[in-house]
Amino acid sequence: MSSRRFFRYLLENLAGWLMLLTGVALLLAVFWVGREMLNPSTGQNNPAGEPIQAQLVDGATLQRTIDQIEAKKQAEEDARLAAIRAEEEAKRRAEEEARRQKEAEEAAKREAAEEAARQKAQEQAAKEQAAEAAAAKKAAEEAAKKKAEEEAKQKAAEEAARQKAEEEAKKKAAEEAARQKAEEEAKKKAAEEAARKKAEEEAARKKAEEARQLEEKLAAMNADEPSLEGLQSSLQADADARDGSVYDSALSAYETLIERVTKRHYRLPDNTPTNLHAELVIYVNAQGNVLDVQVKRSSGYQQFDIAARNAVRDASPLPLPDYRPLRDDVIKEGILFKFNP
User: Fold this and answer.
1) Is 147 left (phi over 0), alpha (psi -120 to 50) or beta?
2) I need a labelling partner for 244 at 20 to 30 A (CA). Which of 114, 128, 262, 272 fits?
3) What is the pTM of this model?
């Protein structure tokens, strides 16, 4: 028992101890008084003359009193012990309740911690799942974007290849058209050259035939001896008829030749109608060099007129006619040429 509990025990039982001590003191006093009265050495008698039984009765009463005091003390002690036991039991129960509550609180804290950990784990798992989903979505979007870009590149490459094929086809078609055009121009040139040669041969043949006929007439005239004036008139008439026919033929052949030469240098302006023509006067020197080109009758389209003049200048030097009278006229007066490409 601790000192604190000992002092508490003394304070709670102080009254009982005092009563016990009082009872003991009374008992001692009774015994002392009785002994003095019965002691023969004193030589005294009982002055009251009271019987000894009364004293015994008083002793019994005292014993009862002591018993009562002892019983009360015992009852108080029992009550005190019961109170102590009750207090200790209450304390034990309180401690047990406190321990139970503490354990319950600790269990609740553990459960709360476990629940918090579980929720945190769930939240972390949800975050990780969301992050994985976002990453997967981003990867899918990137893949879709990359695929779309690749498809766009492939489509662009296919379109470029198609355009290139179309351009090559157009180029090939243009080359084929140019080749056909060149062949046609070559054929046309050959035909024109053949026509020119044929015209020249025809003109030479006519000229020879006319010369032969003239010689025959001269021979006939010499045989008939006509007058000189009649002979000159006849010769002049024959010469005029002969020169007119040859001149026209030579002029037609020369115009065809000029047309063929100048068309090689003609460049049709953009958006220019194809049914235009202009009349030009071409001036050349004795070497065929173009000195000037004038527009006698315009096509009504200035760009066409300019292109026609440039074509004639670019064809310089021009060929001159073989027929001398026509050549002299061309050098002296120029030639009227209808440009109709």
Assistant:
1) alpha
2) 262
3) 0.33
